[in-house]
Amino acid sequence: MKPCSFSLLPVLLLFLVPVLAAGPGCASCDPTQCAPLPSDGCPAGSLQDSCGCCAVCAAAEGEPCGGRRATARRCGTGLECVKSDDDKKSKSGVCACKNNYEVCGTDGTTYKNGCALKSASLTAQKEGKEAISVLNKGRCASAPVIVTPPGQVYNVSGSQVYLSCEAVGVPTPVLTWRKVLGGKRKAALLPGDRDNLAIQTRGGPEKHQVTGWVLISPLTEEEDGSYECHAFNSKGEASAIGEIHLVESIDEIKTGLKEDEL
């Protein structure tokens, strides 16, 4: 009679598999003991916990992440756990978006990064709306907005004066100046043929922003009046009015400034 023989490998695997699946610090998995996900969903989506047992909310942008063993918390898709030098010992950090550039969503909204767009998309879907996807990198196209309109200037004949104006839009607006003529709001494009008047324009100080100036030296009676700052791009246009006042004395300049501040 041949001696009986059997392998212990299948028996050992039965004991090893649950241990390997659980991981350090994890108890045996009992799905009935898992806490339910929030009824309104998770802002950054859901994933399996570090023990591979329960579905939990992923950590969203700006929320704590990392940790040790069974208590470790993971970031949602598109996020990474950023740890400072002080956090390396505790293995904890804060979730940050892997992409830090602005994106334009299919809803026409500019988001600070792709993670903010994804969060907005999840919220929209929970409300029964269409999902939001990336339309293009960078800001969404928008009509110009005058962020700093030209003010009012008071000065005497022969002085040097200027008006400034700032506008923002996507694409970056083109800025022009016009002198308002008469009461019918007609306007003449500047600088025209005046030797004492110049127009300057530069980009900035912010992205998609443009700044322009009307520079007059010397100031004469002909330059007294209203000036229109006009910004335009492929999405629209905007304008604002500033004024230059020619006065006879320094006392009138002080009076004018007080009236302008009221």
Automatic annotation (TrEMBL):
Boundaries of every Kazal-like domain copy: 89-142
CDD domains in UniProt: KAZAL_FS (cd00104)
Domain of life: Eukaryota
Main location: secreted
Cleaved signal peptide residues: 1-21
Keyword check for Ligase: no
Span of domain IGFBP N-terminal: 22-98
Keywords in alphabetical order: Disulfide bond, Immunoglobulin domain, Secreted, Signal
PROSITE patterns (UniProt xref): IG_LIKE, IGFBP_N_2, KAZAL_2
GO cellular component, one term: extracellular space
UniProt cross-references to InterPro entries, sorted A to Z: Growth_fac_rcpt_cys_sf, Ig-like_dom, Ig-like_dom_sf, Ig-like_fold, Ig_sub, Ig_sub2, IGFBP-like, IGFBP_rP_mac25
Manganese keyword on record: no
Chain ranges of the Ig-like domain: 144-245
Location of this chain's protein in the cell: Secreted
One Gene Ontology biological process: regulation of signal transduction
An example Gene Ontology molecular-function term: insulin-like growth factor binding
The name this protein goes by in its record: Insulin-like growth factor binding protein 7
Native organism: Cyprinodon variegatus
